Amino acid sequence: MAGTGVTWLGTPTFPKAARAALGDTQLRRNLRKATHTIRDKRAAAVAELADWERLRAAGAAIKDSALANLDVHLERLEAAVTARGGVVHWARDADEANAIVLRLVRAAGADEVVKVKSMATAEIGLNEALLAGGVRPVETDLAELIVQLGRDRPSHILVPAIHRNRAEIREIFRREMPSASPGLTDDPRELADAARHHLRLKFLSARVAVSGANFAVADTGSVVVVESEGNGRMCLTLPETLITVMGIEKVVPSWRDLEVLLQLLPRSSTAERMNPYTSVWTGVTPGDGPRHFHLVLLDNGRTDALADEVGRQALRCIRCSACLNSCPVYERTGGQAYGSVYPGPIGAILTPQLLGDLSDPQQASLPYASSLCGACFEVCPVRIDIPRVLVHLRSKVVAAKSGASPEAAAMAALGWIMRDPRRFEAAQRAGSLARLLARQGRISRLPWPGSRWTSARDVPAPPRESFRAWWRRTRG
């Protein structure tokens, strides 16, 4: 479970990890069933709104406007939170954010914290940092709890344990939960009751809670968390100290902007018209909720991503996971193959930008973890053109390669061939010989270096006759 920044230590490149995942038939069955179920429900929820496309356009415009004036909105947010009794901390990277949280937990005299599901805290490896500092983190989201107890890695933004079925979850609970009944079955209600019993004492005894944030409103300093189970509400109201770690891109200027985003998020994520629990808090309120509130504003590569005119649209992301559920690559490989806290299409464009080192083989492999079919863009509630960013990042991967890259050598050779009509026609004749390898109009295996392509996909057989040959034969 060790993590560094956004990716996990020792993670192979995506092609290697994907090949291993493709061999796990149980994983593929679990993923197919779950993604198709969520996808179908989302489509039905979206179809209820005649103005869905207008909402998408509004959501994209709101996020772009907020990002264009991010410095102004963040300063307004800090002033509003401070005026209402909260404390704001600025963290440049994961190490700084973890140090801030650990210091605050120790100052509160706690050796255990309850956590609301949070991508930002997973991104910075907060759980590992807390454990190293002598503090036990307790995940309270059911899926996150399953991952934590199973000493596993999450594989989905919304449903981290999507790769597990009920029988596997039952075995994890039997093995790791002292309070679980030996006769526990895989009935969903029994599993939920076991988790509820396990967490109840944690909620009542916790002195410190750690959360992420879906949004923050600059006008009032309000922070918003949406969830479906109620565990977040318990964490946000019972402990004496609440620490929220929030990526700086989550700020929106006003409540009017929030109105649009809160229509887009639930339908795109859980296929609900409204989340069962939408928690909003503003600083500290005497006699109600936590007595101390700390907001940690996290950069961790976001400012660098903001400087990229094409790639910055990834910062619009509201973490709905619709792109994962629609992606044919994710459906077959699962999230762990991406080696990142952020899996799927959004992870393929967000992770390399946050880490910013496309000379690293694992990061460089992520922009290629896509067929560029465009399904992710069609379902994104804030219209992130993920295929365009993938192609953009692929060009940066090639540019980051030291020396003569295979791509550069191939393009140079192609340029030499195409500069001379005789060479070009000879190459066409040679290429037509590949028909000898075709079966039913497809070529499944080519010699090296063509084998690099056919190891993962077929090649259409070339036509029997080139255009030049056809023109010469028919036009004389």
UniProtKB/TrEMBL annotation:
Superkingdom of source: Bacteria
A GO term for molecular function: metal ion binding
Domain 4Fe-4S ferredoxin-type residues, every copy: 314-384
Start and end residues of each LUD domain: 74-284
Keyword Transcription attached: no
Keyword Disulfide bond assigned: no
Gene Ontology process terms (BP): lactate metabolic process
PROSITE patterns, per the entry: 4FE4S_FER_1 (PS00198)
Annotated signal sequence range: none
Keyword set, alphabetical order: 4Fe-4S, Electron transport, Iron, Iron-sulfur, Metal-binding, Repeat, Transport
One Pfam family per UniProt: LUD_dom
Name of this chain's protein: L-lactate dehydrogenase complex protein LldF
Species the sequence originates in: Streptoalloteichus hindustanus
